[in-house]
Amino acid sequence: MRIQADTERCVGAGMCALTAPDLFDQSDEDGTVVLLPDGPRGPDADAAAREAVERCPSGALTLTDRPS
Ligand code: SF4
């Protein structure tokens, strides 16, 4: 599973970082999403990523089935 984040769409709401703090952080400068490249992988991480995508209010996050 591969996570993509569109920082142009991100409004810095922070739901992703709250939902899956091992996968997402926020920029210190403007609060936009930062993907954590060394975050966990596997079924639990995939479920957390899906939940974060559902909670993102701006639709900035997408998942693909391509391996990361
Ligand atoms: S939840 Fe969405 S809008 Fe909020 S910081 Fe994460 S990617 Fe950006």
In short:
This protein is α+β, with helices and mostly antiparallel strands. It has helices at residues 15-19, 43-55, and strands spanning 2-5, 24-26, 33-35, 61-64. The protein is globular.
How would you characterize the overall build of this protein?
By secondary structure, the protein is an alpha+beta fold. The chain has one domain (2-64): Alpha-Beta Plaits (2-Layer Sandwich), CATH 3.30.70.20. It is 26% helix and 21% strand. The protein contains two helices and four strands, in the order βαββαβ. It has helices spanning 15-19, 43-55; strands spanning 2-5, 24-26, 33-35, 61-64. Strands 1-4 form a two-stranded antiparallel ribbon. Strands 2-3 form a two-stranded antiparallel ribbon. β2 (24-26) and β3 (33-35) form a beta hairpin. The chain is globular, with a radius of gyration of 11 Å. The termini are close together. The site of iron/sulfur cluster has 16 residues, from α1. Ferredoxins are iron-sulfur proteins that transfer electrons in a wide variety of metabolic reactions. Its cofactor is [3Fe-4S] cluster. Pfam families: Fer4_13. This is Ferredoxin.
Question: At CATH's second level, what is the architecture?
Answer: 2-Layer Sandwich
Order of helices and strands: EHEEHE
User: How many beta-strand runs?
Assistant: 4
Shape: globular
The end-to-end span amounts to 6 Å
Task: Tell me roughly what share of residues is in helical segments.
Answer: 25-40%
Taken together, the total number of domains comes to 1
